[in-house]
Specification:
The complex is a heterodimer of chains A (110) and B (116). In chain A, 0% of the residues lie in helices and 59% in strands. By secondary structure, chain A is an all-beta fold. The chains are: A mainly beta (110), B mainly beta (116). The interface between A and B is medium-sized, with 23 and 23 residues.
Chain lengths: 110, 116
């Protein structure tokens, strides 16, 4: 069965302290790997889709990368407004559903 | 202006009651979904409809019945509510086609259901 695991479960950083969030996946025939941001009391908000190993995408202070087994969400010089839960999800060729990880709760301390 | 909207935002009800949650999207998408997010924030798909046709039906109790009157609406009806049904329910939509299921999903704000 498809599985998506995210680590760490929670991460506290000082403002400006760069770090990475990990998403490892066990999906037979990955078709797409997604990153979402979820603020408290709101629905997930789309950030990136990655399709093949070696692919990278950037948006402001965030950069997502993909290897054959995992994806990283790098956050550079984060600000307090980057505090949120970051969700990773995968979809495979034989299945039409997104499998989500349990998320990383990121807190940026001013 | 809201792309995917859900009503109600909060729903508090007694065990055994029947309730419905409504979802509407104004993005012109063909595919809509229902997800359940439990207390540990784990998001799991329940149903998916493409152009009013059911295409994903996960292992969900048959007390849950989705209904799609048109491709812009996907409602969720829950019969005989149980304590374990308490969760946040999210509706989503995507321009996904049968040939390419990787299209981005856009989520609604969620409906917080509490069963007492």
């Amino acid at each position: 069965e498809d599985q998506v695991t995210q680590s760490p479960e929670a991460l506290r950083l000082q403002e400006g302290e760069s770090s990475s969030l990990n998403c490892s996946y066990t999906v037979s025939g990955l078709r797409g790997l997604f990153w979402y941001r979820q603020d408290p009391g709101k629905g997930p908000e789309f950030l990136f889709t990655l399709y093949s190993a070696g692919e990278e995408k950037e948006k402001e202070r965030l950069k997502a990368t993909l290897t054959k087994k995992e994806s990283f969400l790098h956050i550079t010089a984060p600000k307090p407004e980057d505090s949120a839960t970051y969700l990773c999800a995968a979809i495979n060729f034989g299945n039409e559903k997104l499998t989500f990880g349990t998320g990383t709760r990121l807190t940026i301390i001013p | 202006d809201t792309a995917v909207s859900q009503t109600p935002k909060y729903l508090v009800t007694q065990m055994g009651n029947d309730k419905s949650i409504k979802c509407e999207q104004n993005l012109g998408h063909d595919t809509m979904y229902w997800y359940k997010q439990d207390s540990k924030k784990f998001l799991k798909i329940m149903f998916s409809y493409n152009n009013k046709e059911l295409i994903i039906n996960e292992t969900v109790p048959n007390r849950f019945s989705p209904k799609s009157p048109d491709k812009a609406h996907l409602n969720l009806h829950i019969n005989s509510l149980e304590l374990g049904d308490s969760a946040v329910y999210f509706c989503a939509s995507s321009p996904k086609t049968v040939d390419d299921p990787t299209e981005t999903q856009y989520f609604g704000p969620g409906t917080r259901l509490l069963v007492l």
